[in-house]
Amino acid sequence: MGALFILTLLFYGAVFFAGHTVSEKRAADLKALEQKEKNFQKNLKARPELLGKVAFVFILVISLALALDVHILRMKMQGRALFPEPPPLI
Predict the structure, then answer these.
(1) Rounded to whole angstroms, how far apart are CA atoms 7 and 5?
(2) What's the confidence (pLDDT) of residue 28?
(3) Closest by CA position to 37, among listed 26, 25, 27, 29
(4) 44 Cβ partners below 8 Å, 6+ apart?
(5) Global confidence as pTM
(6) What is the SS3 assignment for 88?
(7) Fewer CB within 10 Å, N- or C-terminus of the chain?
(8) Three-state helix/strand/coil letters over 19-76
(9) Mean pLDDT within 56-64
């Protein structure tokens, strides 16, 4: 019983001290993220057509995913297998 208690205290102590190192790393990551956001805003102001291109690609990907979902749904409703078995190798 005593050994389990000591192990539990050691575990929570390690988690506590690991949290402090993570928070320091988190602060460095936040600074890097803020710098990336500033660079993104600067690029967006310099070239506003990029936002339209990014939005178009995003809508295209979403549309393709929706079309794939509809295709899979149709196959399932018709009772066909999604992944037909390959022919035997022999």
Answers:
(1) 5
(2) 84
(3) 29
(4) 50, 51
(5) 0.49
(6) coil
(7) C
(8) HHHHHHHHHHHHHHHHHHHHHHHHHHHHCCHHHHHHHHHHHHHHHHHHHHHHHHHHHH
(9) 96
